[in-house]
Design a protein that fits this description.
Chains A, B: Keywords: DNA-binding, Transcription, Transcription regulation. The structure is a homodimer of 262-residue chains. Chain A is built from eight helices and ten strands. In chain A, α1 crosses α3 and α2 packs across α3. The termini of chain A are far apart. β7 of chain A pairs antiparallel with β10 of chain B. The first copy, chain A, binds a DNA duplex (30 and 30 nucleotides) through α3.
Amino acid sequence: MAALPSGILGALDPTSDRAVFRQIADQIREAIDKGRFKEGAKLPSESELVEHFGVSRMTVRNALSILQSEGLVSSEHGKGVFVRPRPPVRRLASDRFARRHRDQGKSAFTVEAEAAGSKPEVDSLEVREEKPTPDISARLGSARKVLARRRRYLLDGRPVEFAVSYLPLDLARGTQIAEPNPGPGGIYARLEELGHRLDHFDEEVRARMPSPAEVKMLRLSSGVPVISLIRTAYDTEGRAVEVCDTVMAADAYVLAYQLPAN
Amino acid sequence: MAALPSGILGALDPTSDRAVFRQIADQIREAIDKGRFKEGAKLPSESELVEHFGVSRMTVRNALSILQSEGLVSSEHGKGVFVRPRPPVRRLASDRFARRHRDQGKSAFTVEAEAAGSKPEVDSLEVREEKPTPDISARLGSARKVLARRRRYLLDGRPVEFAVSYLPLDLARGTQIAEPNPGPGGIYARLEELGHRLDHFDEEVRARMPSPAEVKMLRLSSGVPVISLIRTAYDTEGRAVEVCDTVMAADAYVLAYQLPAN
DNA sequence: CTTGCCCACTCGTCTATACGAGTATGCCTC
DNA sequence: GAGGCATACTCGTATAGACGAGTGGGCAAG
C-alpha cells in the first residue's frame, strides 16, 4: 500500500528539539518553495507521508494543517492535498474612479475584467433602506437612514469581492441609485447628475482573517486573509455622499496607489 | 477537577450534521462576539471544555485551533487560552511622505508614535550593498547593484513592521544614505539634497499569511495576516530612486489613502 | 520572613485506532 | 457501448491514552 512518495522529501532529525510535525511541515514547505512540488500539484497522500516519515497520521495532519493555515496548500476531500495555485490577481489602480473612466456604459469592474480576458459577474444584488451602524452613520455625517446596495463580484465564476454601498437616504431615495441597475457609469455618475460633483475619496485599508460568513460568501480556502476597504466619497461641498464597505479575497487583489510627494 | 465553565456556553446539537468541533467553535465564537468573554479574558481550560461538552480533548483542541486561525484567540503554554486583545492601530496617512513632514530632525515613525503616546524603537538596522532580486531590479530601472537598508520598527516593545529600502548603488554609495543614521528627514531628505527632487510614490498593497521567518521577526500570533507594501519613489526626472519593501503586522495597521475624483 | 521546592494546573506533542464521507476507477451487467 | 455498482483510494471526524513542558501558588525548610 502506498508507494514511496519519491525522493522529494528527506528524513527527520531525531536530535532536533523542533517538533516532529513542524519538521515535516518545514520539509514540505521547502519542497514547495523550491518548486519540487509545483503549483496545483498533488502532495503525497497522508498515508504515504505516514509511511515515509514513520509517524502517526495525526502528526502528518498536524503538519499539513500548518501549511494550510499559511495558505500554501489546500485539501480536497476524497482527492488529496494540493499546492494552492496563485490565482490571477486583479489590480485596483488609484485612478479607477477617475471621471474619465465613467463615460462608458459598463461598470468599471466589467470593463476591466473583460480587458483582462476574464468573465465578470455580479450577483446577490440587493438594494434596501436601513438603519446604519454607528460607524457608517458617523462617516456619512450622522445620517439616520441610508440606502444600502449590496452585491458580490465574481471573476470566471469565482467570487472575489463583496461590497456594500451606503448612501444618505435623503439623497438617494427615488433616484436611479435606488434601482438595482444604476445605469451607465454607476452610482457615481448618477450622484454627479444630481448635482453632487465628486471631489475626492478617502480609503481605509485593513487586512484580517475572514469571518465564517465571509469564508462562505467568498468561498475562501483556509489560510487566505481578506482585505477590508472602506471608501468614503466626498462632493465638492465637503459632504460625504457615499460609504462603500468592501471585503476582498486577499489572494485575488493588489491595490495600487499613487501619492504625491509634496 | 475543573469546575463548571459557567453558564456562558450551551450544549451541542446532536441532530445537527455540523461537526462537533465546529459547533464548539461556533459557541465560543458567539460568546466572544457577544462580549460574554471579554478582550484578554481567559477561556475555560481545555479540560473544562472537555467536561462541559462531553467530548475528547482532541475535539476541543480542534475547535480552539479554528478560533486561533481566525485570529480570535491565542493560547499561552502553561497559562491558558485567551481572547486576543485588539492592539492599538497605527494609521498610515497617504500624506505621510509629504515634504512638509520632513523638516524635523526625527523620523516620521518616531514623531508619529510619540504623538500617539507610544514608545517607538528601531532595531536590527543593517545597511549593505547587494545584488537585487529581478523584481527589485526591474522596479529600479534594471539596477544591477543596490544599497539595501533593513530595519525593524517596534511600538512599546512590540515589533510591528519590517522594512527594506533599496536604492541604486550609483546614487547612494558614499553618501549619508549609506550610513546607518541617514540624518534628519531620513533618506528622502538626503535624496532631495542630492538633486533628486521627489515627484511621487507608487504603492502596491497586498495581504497574505506570514512566512515562518516573518512570524518570528514580527512575533506574530497565529491568525494574524501581514500587509505587504511595496513603495517606489520617483524623482521629477521620472527615475525610480528607491524601492521600499515593507511587511506589517496586519492587526497593528490601517492604511489611509486619499484619491482625487478626476 | 525569605527561600526554594513541589505540585497542580495549563497547553504541546504524539501514538493508535476507528469509522464516515467524498472521489475516481474499473469491471460487470445489461 | 452505456449504465451502474463495487471497491480502493482520498481526507474528515472522533475517541482514548500517554508523556512533556511552561506557569504559578502554596507549603515547608531554613
